[in-house]
């Protein structure tokens, strides 16, 4: 099975340690994130031997030979050639159909992959499909599976919104009913995924689950905000769907009463239509065929629709306010991280200056 991870070695660098060495920058692109690793040539040699030991047969790729007379730190030509050979080595193992070497702990540890891509995809698809099981929260505790689940949550909300729009545009009662059922189905799945996301965040932020926390406090806060926004969006869609169903029921009731009035009072003289104390004034197409009770129901329906519109608008304003607060909080966190990064850069620069002075004294 072909891997869904893209791997390359675009650049290299030379360390600033007393005994310099060449670091190869491995760039990895996963379905939902990208990151970069730095490895030495000796790390590749160790990986090759571990793959051979764990699978039982050598990998179908050859490492570049070690140079005994020339150092890669002093030879840009050797560094570039070795970079290309190591990149070919990783891409060969990553693209072959036989995935025995990719499923080893050595490969996952070398590339910092928490679990195999196929198992993560299977777990995420099972959880998105609402498949129950005792291992649901454990699977969601994987940071990559969590992101896959969140992507599924957004997909379910998008499908529910689409079905609600189609229901609003439909004219036949059967089509409206089918769209409502589909929208309700997507909203139920979204609620199940939300619960799994919350349980996964609890495990990701817990240090007592047999290991240290896998995510920092800032990333945990960001993911909690994503879940809260998803919950609010789901509740808004559910309220909108319920309001549309209630409106349809009321319209059906009024239509039935109107048909009954026409059927029962068809032969009654027209002056009866104006009896009953109706207020004089212009009649509309909606009120002309209604009696006083029908007009009262129509007014109540219009007031209810206005109240629902106001509630939806208030929810939208509250959501925008919450998003603004979240953005402000995230900016504050990013500013703090940038300040810490500046301090680290200044500290490392000071150490490099001291090291250069010592090297100058030695030379």
Largest sheet: 3 strands, antiparallel
Strand percent estimate: 5-15%
Low-confidence stretches: 116-123, 130-136, 267-277
Tally of DSSP β-strands:
3
Arithmetic mean pLDDT: 80
Main-sheet strand order equals 1-2-3
One letter per element, helices H and strands E, the order comes to EEEHHHHHHHHH
Q: How many helical elements?
A: 9
Backbone CA Rg: 33 Å
Cα shape: elongated
Q: Report the structural category.
A: mainly alpha
| Cα distance spanning the termini | 55 Å
Can you give the helix content as a percent range?
55-70%
SSE layout and pairing:
Elements: E1 6-14, E2 22-29, E3 34-39, H1 41-55, H2 76-95, H3 105-110, H4 117-128, H5 136-140, H6 143-169, H7 173-204, H8 217-264, H9 292-362
Antiparallel strand pairs: 1-2, 2-3
Helix pairs in contact: 4-6, 6-7, 6-8, 7-8, 8-9
What can you tell me about this protein's structure?
The chain has 363 residues and is mainly α. 65% of the residues lie in helices and 6% in strands. Strands 1-2-3 form a 3-stranded antiparallel beta sheet. Helix 4 runs parallel beside helix 6 (143-169) and helix 8 packs antiparallel against helix 9. The radius of gyration is 33 Å and the shape is elongated.
Keywords for this entry:
mainly alpha; three-stranded antiparallel beta sheet; 363 residues; elongated
């Amino acid at each position: 099975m072909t891997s869904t991870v893209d791997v390359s070695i675009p650049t290299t660098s030379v360390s600033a340690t007393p005994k310099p060495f060449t670091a190869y920058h491995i760039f990895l692109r996963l379905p939902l994130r990208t990151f970069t690793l730095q490895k030495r040539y000796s790390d590749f040699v160790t990986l090759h031997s571990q793959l051979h030991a764990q699978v039982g047969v050598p990998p179908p790729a050859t490492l570049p030979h070690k140079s005994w007379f020339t150092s890669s730190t002093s030879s840009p030509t050797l560094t570039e050639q070795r970079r290309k050979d190591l990149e070919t080595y990783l891409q060969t193992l990553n693209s072959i159909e036989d995935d025995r070497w990719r499923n080893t702990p050595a490969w996952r540890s070398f590339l910092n992959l928490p679990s195999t891509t196929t198992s993560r995809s299977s777990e995420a698809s099972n959880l998105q499909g609402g498949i129950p099981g005792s291992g649901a929260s454990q699977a969601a505790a994987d940071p990559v599976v969590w992101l896959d689940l969140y992507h599924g949550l957004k997909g379910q909300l998008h499908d529910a919104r689409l079905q609600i729009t189609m229901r609003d545009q439909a004219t036949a009662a059967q089509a409206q009913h089918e769209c409502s059922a589909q929208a309700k189905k997507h909203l139920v799945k979204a609620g199940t995924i939300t619960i799994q996301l919350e349980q996964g965040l609890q495990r990701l932020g817990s240090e007592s689950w047999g290991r240290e926390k896998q995510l920092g406090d800032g990333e945990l806060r960001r993911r909690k905000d994503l879940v809260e926004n998803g919950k609010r969006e789901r509740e808004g869609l559910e309220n909108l769907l319920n309001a549309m169903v209630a409106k349809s029921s009321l319209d059906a009731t009024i239509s039935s009463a109107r048909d009954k009035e026409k059927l029962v009072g068809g032969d009654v003289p027209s002056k009866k239509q104006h009896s009953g104390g109706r207020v004089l004034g212009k009649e509309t197409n909606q009120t002309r065929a209604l009696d006083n009770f029908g007009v009262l129901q129509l007014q109540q329906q219009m007031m209810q629709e206005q109240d629902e519109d106001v509630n939806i608008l208030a929810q939208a304003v509250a959501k925008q306010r919450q998003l603004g607060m979240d953005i402000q909080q995230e900016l504050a966190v990013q500013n703090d991280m940038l300040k810490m990064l500046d301090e680290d850069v200044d500290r490392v620069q000071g150490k490099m200056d001291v090291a250069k002075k010592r090297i100058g004294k030695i030379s």
